[in-house]
Write a structure and sequence with these properties.
mainly alpha, transmembrane, membrane
Length: 423
């Protein structure tokens, strides 16, 4: 567990830096364009290359030193940030350098994520999987808890270039930690046969599709990622419609307390049973609180609903993670998680591709003063800038709840719980 903790601390530091960059870039792009569409486009470019390359990174993680792949992913992802800084320093401050830079960073992160996922299974016994998953999500929560607060306070004084420089420095800290840990871990080549991407990709696909429980969970998590992306992408434009960037930073940090609470509970209790029930009920709760978040512009109420929404997510992720992890052999972990990542995060890509356009050109016009919903829905949730986005979150939350109910009745997921209890 000590070796995993050391790696986790390095990734925690890296996540804080990456979260600061994501927050600063979203503010920068929105203030530059005043468009939710451009915000979602940049978010799409920040995720799509990683998603597409995850299967390749997963295959490499089943063949070679997983810590070395993490080092390469962290180190070279800083190149994209350097591209943005150089363009800004040269006087070109448009959106295009942002798009190029985040795309380059995303490409190299495709090496890191499957290796990190597989490392958990390699270093820990299955009794520690839930605790490790809670810690990983705790590190992920830092992007929303610590990063926005720090970036919101620093953005006015050091600007976006200063934020990017801080993020680059965190990459070097993480690489240093991984180098130290790598010296004390017995690194083995997990795969000895000749490299054949398509053969090994097909092996990973068969490991997923042959197991109805895993394939059901992958489908459920794909829809979950789709709904979550709406919340992550549209929350900032909705708040900025009636507030400012400092309030947004504080708001995102406060609301992410929920993810911190959920992750700490999981890491402390180390859940060992009832994974399927906890997953479904947590997903239903997340849908309810997403819908409620779209109903109000009151900062206090909005913060409360966001806290509860994010508190439910670690339980969803941990339960799905454990149920899948214990059914996949160590030598298949890299490619399976790489393929699962590309499938589930396709939900993010789909949401990023449509949510900005839907917000700007469909839902926002509906709730203007002269909009077609101003006289009915508008009387309940309000009208004006940002209220169309709120209506989108209400609808998305309701659909999220419905999907939880539908998948909760699937026998294949319940059978995974029964088999886990018998092992």
């Amino acid at each position: 567990m000590k070796k995993f903790i050391a790696i986790w601390i390095g990734e925690l530091i890296s996540n804080i830096g990456s979260g600061m960059t994501a927050f600063a870039i979203s503010i920068y792009v929105y203030q530059l364009t005043r468009s939710a569409t451009w915000v979602s486009v940049v978010a799409l470019l920040a995720f799509a290359p990683t998603i597409l390359l995850n299967p390749f990174g997963g295959i490499l993680a089943d063949r070679y030193d997983r810590r070395l792949l993490m080092i390469c992913g962290d180190f070279f992802s800083a190149v994209g940030l350097l591209v943005i800084i150089i363009c800004m320093q040269s006087g070109y401050t448009g959106v295009i350098p942002i798009c190029i830079g985040v795309t380059i960073s995303s490409i190299f992160l495709g090496l890191l994520e499957p290796a990190y996922k597989a490392t958990i299974t390699e270093l820990l016994p299955k009794e520690e999987f839930a605790k490790a998953s809670g810690l990983v999500q705790l590190a992920g929560a830092s992007k929303y808890l610590v990063s926005p607060l720090i970036a919101g306070l620093l953005l006015s004084s050091i600007g976006i270039k200063g934020i990017l420089i801080i993020d680059i420095l965190t990459f070097f800290v993480t690489v240093f930690v991984l180098v130290i840990v790598r010296r004390n871990v017995n690194n083995i080549k997990l795969k000895q046969s000749d490299f054949n991407f398509f053969r090994e990709f097909q092996e990973g696909i068969r490991s997923i599709t042959a197991d109805k429980g895993i394939s059901s969970l992958v489908l459920l998590m794909t829809f979950t990622c789709f709904f979550l992306a709406f919340m992550q992408t549209l929350l900032a434009p909705m708040i900025l419609a009636f507030s400012n960037s400092k309030v947004l930073g504080i708001m995102e940090s406060v609301s992410a307390v929920g993810m911190l609470i959920g992750s700490v509970i999981i890491a402390s209790l180390n859940i060992k049973r009832n994974y399927s029930k906890i997953l479904i009920f947590s997903l239903m709760a997340a849908g309810i609180f997403m819908a409620l978040a779209g109903t109000t512009t009151h900062i206090g109420l909005l913060a409360a609903f966001c806290i509860l929404f994010f508190a439910a997510l670690p339980f969803v992720n941990t339960c799905a993670d454990v149920l899948i992890r214990v059914r996949v052999s160590n030598e298949m972990q890299g490619r399976v998680w790489g393929i699962i990542s590309v499938i589930t995060q396709a939900g993010y890509v789909a949401a990023y591709a449509v949510c900005g356009v839907l917000a700007d050109y469909v839902f926002e016009p509906m709730l203007t003063k002269e909009g077609i919903l101003a006289g009915n829905i508008g009387r309940i949730i309000g009208i004006g800038e940002g209220r169309g986005i709120g209506f989108m979150l209400i609808i998305t939350g309701i659909i999220m709840f419905a999907f939880a109910v539908i998948f909760g009745s699937r026998k294949s997921i319940k059978e995974m719980e029964n088999e886990l209890a018998n092992n």
